[in-house]
Amino acid sequence: MNDFVFHSPTKFVFGRGYVDRTGTEMKQLGFEKVLVVYGQGSVERTGTLERVLASLDEAGITYVEAGGARPNPEVTFVREAIELARTHEVTGILAVGGGSSIDAAKAVSFGVPYDGDVWDFFAQKKPIEECLPLAVVLTLPAAGSEGSGSCVVSNDAENRKLGVSGDVFRPRLAIMDPELTFTLPAYQTAAGITDMIAHVCERYFSGVGAVPLTDGIACSIIRTLMSEAPKVLANPNNYDARANIMWAGTLAHNDLAGCGRSLSPTVRAGGWESHALEHELSAHHTEVTHGAGLAVVMPAWMRHVWRHDTKRFLSFARDVFGIEPEEGYESHRDAVYDAVTSAIKELQNFFGSIPKPVG
Ligand code: NZQ
Ligand code: ZN
Predict the structure, then answer these.
(1) pTM for this one?
(2) Among 139, 188, 201, 289, which is best to mutate for testing ligand 1, by the most ligand atoms less than 8 A from CB?
């Protein structure tokens, strides 16, 4: 097991109806006046925003609203929200939504105390040392941004979509109420599950040898997602399945599933090739949903690289799908080929079995 630093400072408050605790929990952590960042209308339609704002009022937290973060959030929105935060002198940020709202809010949180343009952090990989404290109310389990030290923002003028990393802007608080996800369309549910599996796989195939505890956590997350997916797709109001998926999304990307698998203690485990390829796709086609892009890229990436780490891919085949090389092949090599490619096919079939965009 390689050396690692696991830094997960987020307080996760997880349960039915817990969205109404947002204000009290934030107050306890010292939030006083916040910018509330959200997306393009879902939280208004579902009533989530109303409940969040009511709980802020009750706790005596004042706020200014910045709605309109789009999927694959864009830097122009972030710049405008930074100006709003400065004008109103807020001292904290609250994101209400999925990964796009949370990432927009993260960029605002480190953009406010910075003198230059927030895009410098993405383009020049400037280290992020300072930010306003951030809380989130998660409505879409997918990106894992509620617990991650990552933030991904697009720049349409430059056709770029870039990520930055840093522990300083990990959320202080994540309110996770699985009932908020009952309203998710099947397509977003499926894209979210695909993204979570990809987060685990990027770390699992990091090129480092086996780490039994971490590998067990990783494979359990994938198996759980594959068994819970059909349940929520059959019944979107299945609380337990929604809850398992929501928590899986956090554990898939808060770095727990990569402990001991990184080449350097301060760097996230994995090469993140499929994510890099998908980010290029959605930079040029901003309508591409991140998880849907990954469903196309990841199996292709696996087929391209598996021969470089056959042992690892055989472990994946066995521990996720119960597939082992069989007897009766002319050579062991053929048996290995069949086992690994069957596992990749199984994964691809799973991605294909859950909803995709029409057309
Ligand atoms: O914009 P609104 O109206 O809120 O609607 C959203 C959006 O259209 C909707 N939605 C969210 N919660 C809902 C809901 N609709 C009904 N009921 C609810 N409860 O779902 C749509 C997609 O939302 P979005 O936030 O874009 O999805 P996701 O959470 O998948 O986030 C994707 C973004 O996160 C980045 C991706 O690249 C992409 O930009 N990622 C961020 C990461 C991180 N910060 O750690 C890691 C990931 O690998 C990823 O790159
Ligand atoms: Zn992702």
Answers:
(1) 0.96
(2) 188
d(CA 208, ligand 1 centre) in Å: 30
Residue of minimum CA distance from atom 16 in ligand 1: 184
Hey, what amino acid is at 94?
A: L
pLDDT digit string, tens, across residues 43-64: 999 999 999 999 999 999 999 9
Compute, in degrees rounded to 10, the torsion defined by CA atoms 182, 48, 108, 72.
40
Whether 302 and 351 have beta carbons less than 8 Å apart is answered as: no
Q: For each of the domains in the chain, give its residue range(s) and CATH number, in order of start.
A: 18-176 (3.40.50.1970), 188-353 (1.20.1090.10)
CA of 67 to the centre of ligand 1 (A): 14
| Tokens encoding 82 | 């930074």
Taking only the tens place, the pLDDT of each residue in 344-356 is 999 999 999 988 7
Q: Which of 199, 205, 295, 307 is CA-nearest to residue 256?
A: 199
| Nearest ligand, CA 180 | 1
pLDDT tens-digit readout, 266-276: 899 999 999 99
pLDDT digits (tens, 9 = 90+) for 234-268: 999 999 999 999 999 999 999 999 999 999 998 99
| Gap between the terminal Cα atoms of the chain | 45
What φ, ψ does residue 211 adopt, rounded to 5°?
Answer: -130, 90
Strand-by-strand arrangement of the 92-97 sheet: 11-14, 173-176, 134-138, 92-97, 33-38, 62-66
Closest CA to 204 of 167, 241, 258: 258
* Position 66 pLDDT exceeds 70: yes
- pLDDT tens figures, 1-23: 999 999 999 999 999 999 999 99
Per-residue pLDDT band at 359 (split at 50, 70, 90): very low
231 Cα distance to chain centroid: 21
Which pLDDT does position 357 carry in this prediction?
61
Expressed in angstroms and rounded, the spacing between residue 281 Cα and the centre of ligand 2 is 13
User: What is the CB < 6 Å shell around ligand 1?
Assistant: 39-43, 46, 71-72, 97-101, 103, 139-140, 142-145, 148, 150-152, 180-181, 183-184, 188, 192, 195, 253, 275, 290-291
